[in-house]
UniProtKB/TrEMBL annotation:
The entry's keywords: Phosphoprotein
Purpose: May play the central regulatory role in sporulation. It may be an element of the effector pathway responsible for the activation of sporulation genes in response to nutritional stress. Spo0A may act in concert with spo0H (a sigma factor) to control the expression of some genes that are critical to the sporulation process.
Protein name from the UniProt record: Stage 0 sporulation protein A homolog
Source species of the chain: Schaedlerella arabinosiphila
Cited InterPro entries: CheY-like_superfamily (IPR011006), Sig_transdc_resp-reg_receiver (IPR001789)
Domain of life: Bacteria
């Protein structure tokens, strides 16, 4: 399973990554400091943890963009979870 954690606070990104690595060692997690970085990566993830209150694009804007680009919510898309 491919997972992304997006948060402008490094400590929170590290915490989420640590939890995922501990609980789901077979999964792959990538951390991003901004929504723009995540979107620029062009990668598709099964689960995306998003910080709702970030500078620049906030988590809600990132989620909307992901849904528009990747058909999230159709049963075949990624899960987006607010932090």
């Amino acid at each position: 399973m491919d997972i992304a954690a997006v948060d402008d606070e490094k400590a929170i990104r590290e915490h989420i990554c640590g939890l995922v690595e501990e609980q789901q060692p077979e999964s792959r997690i990538e951390a991003y400091a901004t929504g723009e970085e995540l979107l620029a990566s062009g990668k598709r993830f099964d689960i995306v943890f998003l910080d709702i209150q970030m500078e620049g694009m906030n988590g809600i804007e990132v989620a909307r963009s992901l849904r528009e680009k990747q058909n999230v919510g159709t049963g075949n898309g990624q899960k987006i979870l607010p932090e």
